[in-house]
Amino acid sequence: MTRSLSSAKRLVVKIGSSLLVDGNAGTLRAQWLAALAADVARCVQRGQEVVLVSSGAIALGRRGLRMPKGALRLEEKQAAAAAGQIRLAHAYQEQLAKFDIAAAQVLLTGDDTESRRRYLNARTTLTTLLELRAVPVINENDTVATEEIRYGDNDRLAARVAQMVSADVLVLLSDVDGLYDANPSSNPDAKWIPEVGEVTPAIVAMAGTTASVDMGTGGMITKLAAAKIAMAAGCRMILSDGRGEGPLSRIESGGRCTWFVPKANPRTARKNWIASGLKPSGALVLDAGAVGALAKGKSLLPAGVTGVTGDFQRGDAVVLQSPNGQEIGRGLSAYSAADARRIVGHKSGEIEGLLGYRGRDEMVHRDDLVVSQTLTEVAG
User: Fold this and answer.
1) DSSP 330
2) Which residues are CB-contacts of 59 (< 8 A; sequence separation ≥ 6)?
3) Is the pLDDT confidence value at 342 over 80?
4) Mean pLDDT of 228-255
5) Which residue intervals of the chain bear CATH 3.40.1160.10?
6) In a 10 Å sphere around its CB, with 0-12 CB exposed, 13-18 middle and 19+ buried, how is residue 135 labelled?
7) pLDDT tens digits along 91-112
8) Could you give the residue range(s) of every CATH 2.30.130.10 domain in the chain?
9) What fold is seen in the domain 10-266?
10) CA–CA distances in Å: residue 34 to residues 31, 41, 96, 248
């Protein structure tokens, strides 16, 4: 798997508070953000899709509300986030607009990635924005999060987002230029680690001696936790120092960073998850034409379904069966069992009239299904 930022089709970039906000003045580092926007624009112009996960709302908001320095209570953080998020979103919108790029604000909580329904809604929104060539700017929804459900840092949030959108590369921009086997600020013999293939206990142990002084709540331990999430989804991760202007350009020109490189890619990881990581909640029976279409790598349309069994919701895993009942694959249904029963055998253009809303044309999209080896051999 290549170690190249420019080769990524879909890129998630996480920006820490200390990069975006001056800690003493509590003001936005406008010049730094302008350089980042230029980096993002270059990526978009060469056909890449970019998602930004940005901290900074609380740091910006507390100054606007004239809050004193020091630790804030939870309700004060929520108030600061409410005031700061407006400033943050406007800043990104203003800088990206200079390159004729639309910015879109998305606020998430931990529950949005743990709840299956919310996860699907968030994923659909993000992928639609990317299809429209917009740049989603994501932050944790601190105004409604509580101590029990909040992520507590945007490193793990960024990794969950990368997992959600099947990103190829996640870039964590922070105040460290990579992973070391000891704290480089106190140990001149600390060794930089250019690549990590697996986050082992030995790698995790290094986090205890390599700390971030980031204004946020994350440290090296959260960055390694993010790496585990991203790598499990087949997503490469870069840990890099973002303090200089044009941090993405610096990475591309060979600047020091640590690459976390998984064995699988996002597509393979997702297919494995669908095939064996989910318990099916029902089944769809296909006609011969649909079986042949799947064998050629196409999506499953309602017209090719003859029967529905089980009780499942949109996004649940279902077994795909041949006319004689043989399992030929598994996939994620775009419709609930109740709606599926109403549209089976019908053309996609009839869905809105049957259900009263315009859903997906496919019952199971080809990106959300895995065919059995038997069917693959038949297609070959």
Assistant:
1) E
2) 17, 20, 21, 23, 26, 80, 84, 215
3) yes
4) 94
5) 10-266
6) buried
7) 999 999 999 999 999 998 777 7
8) 278-379
9) Carbamate kinase (3.40.1160)
10) 5, 10, 8, 13
* Structure tokens, 269: 């990881």
- For residue 67, give the DSSP letter: P
Q: Considering only CA atoms, which of 203, 262, 256, 200 is closest in space to residue 230?
A: 262
Cα 185 to Cα 209: distance, rounded to the nearest angstrom: 10
- Phi and psi for 218 in degrees, rounded to 5? -85, 165
- Which is the CATH superfamily of the domain at 278-379? PUA domain (2.30.130.10)
* Strand ranges (E), the chain: 10-15, 49-54, 103-108, 135-140, 169-174, 179-180, 192-193, 195-196, 236-241, 257-260, 282-286, 305-310, 317-321, 327-332, 369-371
pLDDT at 116 over 80: no
Residue-wise pLDDT for 282-312, tens only, equals 999 999 999 999 999 999 999 999 999 999 9
Model pTM score = 0.83
Q: Using CA atoms, how far apart are residues 236 and 13, in angstroms rounded to an integer? A: 12
